[in-house]
Amino acid sequence: MLKNILIAVLVVTNLATFAVLTRFMDRMEGIGAFFDATFERRLSQIDAIEVQPGDVVFLGDSLIREGDWAELFPDHKVRNRGVGGDTSADVLARLPQIAEGRPGKVFLQVGTNDLSAGVPPEETAQNITTIINAVAAASPDAEIFVQSVPPRERLNRERVEALNQTIKTSLPEAATWIDIYDAFLDPQDGSIDNRYSNDEVHITGAGYLRWRDLIDPHLQTTN
Question: Which among 20, 82, 163, 214 counts the fewest CB atoms within 10 Å?
Fold first, then answer.
């Protein structure tokens, strides 16, 4: 009798667990579909609104995407071409529309998602080199700036610094290196300064104001 009761309890428990897991998987599929649709809308907007000659283009991942660059630099014709989740390979894949628009300046910042995806630093650096060369070939008058990957969590400090060093040392002559890493680093903790991030990856308003000040001198120069 007791054995039968225990079996019944296990059956009910398993059925309940299965139902919860099913609901969880359905919800995760729904979340995945939401992000897929968001990503698709973002790319369609980039394709629909073409870069024009002389534009200042901010290019990269979510760190670029979430910056209100047009408001940070109201005296310039700015195009935000950041896409959340992009790796250096993703930026390279969607580059033609940007490069062929003949921008005046390109501010590239990408690589933190490469770290998360386990992409070797040398591969990231090579992708960035290819991006630079492609922009220079399609828009020879463009000024190209490559910005370092900002700090992240303390445990990623060495990886971020190694990636930045690899990118910097392999940079083609067509690009100018801008170090933003040190300005965002908490030297005591070894992670990104809490004043500039609320999740140890993405940038807050204070961080974007700091970023603006770091690159403003490069934005004001003319060919």
Answer: 20
